[in-house]
Amino acid sequence: MKFIDEKKINKYIVIAVLFLSFGYAQWQSARGTLAYMSYSYPELGQAGWLFNDVVAILFGGLVPLLFYELLTAFAARFVSVRVGGADGDMKYALRFFYIAANIVIGSLKFLYYVSPIVSVFGGIWIDFFVTTAFFGWFLAYSAKHYVQKPRWGAMFLSVGGTYLVIEAILTVINLLAGVVLA
Question: What are phi and psi of 146, to 5 degrees?
Answer without folding.
Answer: -120, -20
